[in-house]
Write a structure and sequence with these properties.
Layout lengths: L1 H10 L26 H21 L9 E5 L7 E3 L15 E3 L5 E3 L6 H13 L5 E5 L2 H7 L19 E4 L14 H6 L5 E4 L3 E6 L3 H23 L10 H11 L2 H18 L6
Parallel strand pairs: 6-7
Antiparallel strand pairs: 1-2, 1-5, 2-3, 3-4, 5-8, 7-8
Pfam families: Aldolase_II
Family: Belongs to the aldolase class II family.
Organism: Herbaspirillum robiniae
C-alpha cells in the first residue's frame, strides 16, 4: 500500500537526495510516492496537474485561455493529460482534464484543447520521451524578460537554480506556433535544459521527474525574471555576479528535480487545503 511504503522510507531514514533530508530517523518529512497500481499513479498525476493549474491562477499567471500544462499518462506514454480549453486556471477540476495524443486528438474528456498551444507541448513530449511534464503560461515577468532575448545571469542564489540549465530560443520569436514543425526547435532545446526562455513569447519548463517539479520550477523561473527586471531597473548600480563554481554548486543543491518536487509539496498542501474542490 502507498502509506506503508511512505512509512517504511521514513523509518529507514529515506534515501539521501538533498542536503535538506533529515539525518535523524522518525521525523515527518515528505516522501516521494510509491504506487500500488497504474490507476493510482494516474489519479495522482491528474490531481497534481489540477493543483498546478490552481497554483498558476494563484500566482497571477492567468491570461485569457493562454497557457498549457501537460503530464504524460503512466500507462500510455504516448498520451498526455492537459488542461481544458477556455476554462480558467482557478476553475479547473480533475474531472475536467483532457487526454490527448501527439496530434492533439482528444482520446478522453469532454473539453476541447488549445490546438495552437499544444503544438509546443506535443513536440516536447514526442522528441523527449523521458520528459514527464511541461508547463507554459503567458506571465507578466517572464514575458517581459523574454523580450530581451537574454539568459538569466547568476546574480541571486535563486537564479542559480537555472544556471547552465536554461536556454534562450530565438526561433519563431513572437510568432504564434500553429504549424506542427513550430515546436521542433523548442523540443530540441529541452534535450539539455529544463527551462526555455522563448524570445518575445515567454517561459517554458519541462521535467523528467514530475508535474510537481515542472510546476515549481516554472513558478521559480518567473520569480527570478521578476527579480532580474527589478535589478535591471537599478541602472546606476551594477549587480555582482556569483562565481561560476558557486553558481554551479548552488544549482546542484537548489535546482535538481527532487528539490523541485519537494518545494511543490508545500504549495500542494496549501492549495489542496484552501481549494479542496480541485479534486472533484
Amino acid at each position: 500500500m502507498l502509506m506503508e511504503a511512505k512509512q517504511a522510507l521514513t523509518q529507514a531514514g529515506a534515501q539521501n537526495k538533498s542536503v535538506y533530508q533529515p539525518t535523524q530517523e522518525g521525523l515527518i518529512f515528505p516522501q516521494e510516492p510509491v504506487f500500488a497500481s497504474v490507476a493510482e499513479e494516474r489519479r495522482h498525476r491528474k490531481e497534481r496537474l489540477t493543483a498546478a493549474c490552481r497554483l498558476f491562477a494563484k500566482h497571477g499567471f492567468s491570461f485569457g485561455f493562454g497557457g498549457h500544462l501537460t503530464v504524460r499518462d503512466p500507462e500510455h506514454p504516448e498520451l498526455f493529460w492537459t488542461n481544458p480549453m477556455a476554462v480558467p486556471w482557478s476553475m479547473v477540476k480533475t474531472s475536467m482534464l483532457v487526454l490527448v495524443d501527439h496530434n492533439g486528438k482528444v482520446v478522453e474528456g469532454k473539453y476541447a484543447i488549445n490546438q495552437a498551444g499544444y503544438v509546443l507541448h506535443s513536440a516536447i513530449h514526442e522528441h523527449n520521451p523521458e520528459i514527464i511534464a511541461s508547463c507554459h503560461a503567458h506571465t507578466v515577468h517572464g514575458g517581459a524578460w523574454a523580450a530581451f532575448g537574454r539568459p538569466l545571469p547568476p546574480v541571486t542564489q535563486d537564479a542559480c537554480m537555472f544556471y547552465g540549465d536554461h536556454a534562450v530560443l530565438g526561433d519563431g520569436a513572437g510568432k504564434v506556433p500553429v504549424a506542427q514543425e513550430s515546436g521542433h526547435p523548442v523540443a530540441r532545446a529541452f534535450e539539455t535544459n529544463k527551462a526555455i526562455i522563448h524570445q518575445n513569447h515567454g517561459l517554458l519548463v519541462a521535467s523528467r521527474h514530475s508535474i510537481d517539479d515542472a510546476c515549481w520550477h516554472f513558478i521559480a523561473l518567473d520569480h527570478c525574471c521578476r527579480m532580474q527586471l527589478m535589478i535591471e531597473a537599478a541602472r546606476d548600480i551594477r549587480p555582482t555576479e556569483i562565481d561560476p563554481k558557486f553558481a554551479a554548486y548552488s544549482r546542484e543543491h537548489l535546482g535538481n528535480e527532487f528539490i523541485g518536487w519537494l518545494h511543490f509539496q508545500t504549495l500542494f498542501a496549501e492549495i489542496s487545503h484552501q481549494q479542496p474542490d480541485l479534486f472533484d
